[in-house]
Every structure is written in structure tokens, then in C-alpha cells.
Fold this sequence. Notes:
By secondary structure, the protein is mainly β. The protein contains two helices and five strands, in the order E-E-H-E-E-E-H.
Amino acid sequence: MFKTHAKYHLGQVVRHRKHPFRGVVFDVDAIFSNTDEWYNAIPEDSRPKKDQPFYHLLAENDQSFYVAYVSEQNLVADYSGEPVDHPDLDDLFGPFEDGHYPLQAQLN
Length: 108
């Protein structure tokens, strides 16, 4: 029986381990659920295993806002206490409080 546990939760602020961006978790896939084309575009020596949680993030870096899809092994919790400024946050979450965003909308 396959069983997995997501380390990060909806509304949590996280950072990428290798790339300079952070974001808010808005969905979690128990295992890889993106396209093979997306997966194969990652250099082979950097490809994460597919049998781990993958997170959908409302992400930001110094230049832009976007949606990111990131494996659990490439994320760390962000304890900076700084809010994320992604323009779509208000569509899903309430105001930033105590280091996270409370879920405001119901996701399917």
C-alpha cells in the first residue's frame, strides 16, 4: 500500500533550496502529477523522484510572480516572517498572520 505524508501545508510560506524564490502552498499532489514534457525538461542529474509530494506555489522572486510546481525535496520552510506579495493570494487566502496565510476559498 502506497502512503505519503506532505511535510508542508496549505497557506505555508516556503523557499526553494536551490533557486532564489519563495511562495505560498496552495495545493499538494501526493506524487508527481505534471506532464512528462515538464519533467523531462529538468536536467537529468537534477530531476527529483516522482514518488514524493509535489507542491503548487504562488511564487515570487525579485522580478516576477508566477505559479511554481516543486518537489518536497527542493523546499524548505520560510520562517522569515515576511509576507509574500503574489497578486493572487487574496483569491485563496486571508491576511498573512503568524507566519502563514489562512485558507479562505474551498479548493477541489
